Amino acid sequence: RRKIIIDTDPGQDDAAAIMLAFASPDEIEVLGLCAVAGNVPLSYTSRNLRIVCELCGRPDAPVYEGALKPTVRPQVTAEHVHGRTGLDGIELPEPTMSVKATHAVDFIIETLRAESAGTVTLCTLGPLTNIALALEKAPDIAGRAKELVMMGGGFFEGGNITPAAEFNIYVDPEAAKTVFASGMPIVMLPLDVTHQLLTTKARVEKIAALGTRPAEVLVAWLAFFERFDIEKYGSDGGPLHDPTVIAYLIKPELFSGRDCNVEIETQSELTVGMTVVDWWHVSGRKPNAKVMRHVDADGFFELLTERVARL
Ligand code: BDR
Ligand code: CA
């Protein structure tokens, strides 16, 4: 059973990831969930995170609030994809559970120091601001995490917020640079993987057929989330990015990739936030991440559906 901390900016696809984690107690123990500014401002990501916990029947889950904005740059948000609240798609009651008083950055540091070295996995579903701030404040934690598994970046597939950059990395490229330079073992789930995971009608119908309240809410969220890609690109659904992080922990055999060096562009106006992945090992730079490229898409959706049924 893996102990994990989820750092997130919900986000409908973040919500699906959190649901997958809570529905998998045999494989995953959620030590805490941290909100970060990203898809929408922190006040909304914190609220949304608590809505998801309550939907999963986990109002007891420890929720922490982290960074209000990126480490260096002004905040960039993605209401064009996720809606005004970040979790548009269905009217739900405001959450009643509370947020812990500890700052998310301190929770991350304290947990990595308190638990045995090499036992806690950091799961990041949004910009890397909280993790970078924790690494700057307590560099020793780099050697204590088992792994950092992130949804972020893109290489053969290009970017989704600029031609070169994926949203999570683009929002706080300086933070991403700190994380990739930290020496922490990193697994990266880029757009190259997540763009293979479209919420097609057939797949969403299987979730809807579960007939439970969590399934019904998830389907409403996905219907909102996918409309951006369907309207803009005429695709068969939306790319389900963030649940890849949790699916990787449960069934790593669904994914394949390579150890590569990854550097983050922070200077060029045109390509800021780009993940420069040395897939062909041409640079001679040392690999610092396991970069995933392929996924068994049907296996992924089967897993998600089977687990959501348990909520
Ligand atoms: C990432 O950006 C966000 O909009 C999604 O939640 C996901 O984490 C995809 O680029
Ligand atoms: Ca996200």
Automatic annotation (TrEMBL):
Keyword DNA-binding: no
One GO term (biological process): purine nucleoside catabolic process
Top-rank taxon, per record: Bacteria
Claim: Transport is one of the keywords in the record: no
InterPro entries with a match to the protein in the record: Inosine/uridine_hydrolase_dom, IUNH, Ribo_hydro-like
Record organism: Neorhizobium galegae bv. orientalis str. HAMBI 540
Protein name (Swiss-Prot/TrEMBL): Inosine/uridine-preferring nucleoside hydrolase
Residue span, Inosine/uridine-preferring nucleoside hydrolase domain: 4-302
Annotated Gene Ontology cellular component terms: cytosol
Pfam families: IU_nuc_hydro
